[in-house]
Design a protein that fits this description.
The protein is of the alpha/beta class. Helices cover 32% and strands 17% of the residues.
């Protein structure tokens, strides 16, 4: 599976300034064609609220031919078309369990924050993409470790590439860094 990971947008209503509409912001972010993939992150939404947001987001993403991934909620991902992926963290659920539930055809990403976590990925059960980070310290995720820095993230990305695993840098990434 070849993915365009040049810009990997992670959304979340809690990240928006007061009064900014989530769906307007999503469309503004992807309509110019520079964002090929979007991860929908809703940490405080109920299942039904997250599902409703995901379905409406998918309509916008489809309009602009943008790949969509659901953050952490396999329950939501299971209720969406197979073309919608899932991204899980180390503490969300076992990768093999997610793959068994969603099947081989659905994209699944996995967060990686160390060489040990990368080494623990089995060759017969590899994610389609890994999110390496946090690269920089971030306040958007509770209990996130300190940022590892760009050199450590680059080393992990290189090691993943050597194993044939695509990667994207995540965590605290802004236009200034």
């Amino acid at each position: 599976m070849t993915l365009d990971l040049s810009v990997y947008l992670v959304t979340g209503r809690e990240l928006l300034p007061p009064g900014k509409d989530y769906f307007v912001s999503l469309e503004e972010s992807i309509r110019d064609g520079h964002v090929p993939i979007v991860q929908i992150r809703e940490k405080s939404a109920s299942f039904q609220e997250f599902l409703d947001i995901a379905r409406a987001s998918l309509t916008i993403c489809d309009k602009y031919h943008v790949r969509m991934i659901i953050n952490d909620s396999i329950d939501v991902a299971e209720h969406l078309p197979e073309r919608v992926g899932l991204h899980i963290g180390q503490d969300d659920m076992a990768f093999r369990e997610a793959r068994e539930k969603l099947g081989e055809g659905q994209l699944i990403g996995l967060s990686i924050g160390s060489n040990e976590e990368l080494a623990a990925i089995a060759d017969d059960a590899r994610p389609d993409v890994i999110g390496i980070g946090p690269v920089h310290s971030t306040a958007t995720k509770k209990n996130a470790p300190a940022g590892m820095g760009t050199a450590a993230a680059a080393a992990l990305a290189h090691a993943a590439h050597e194993r044939g695993i695509e990667s994207v840098a995540i965590g605290g990434i802004k236009t200034h860094n």
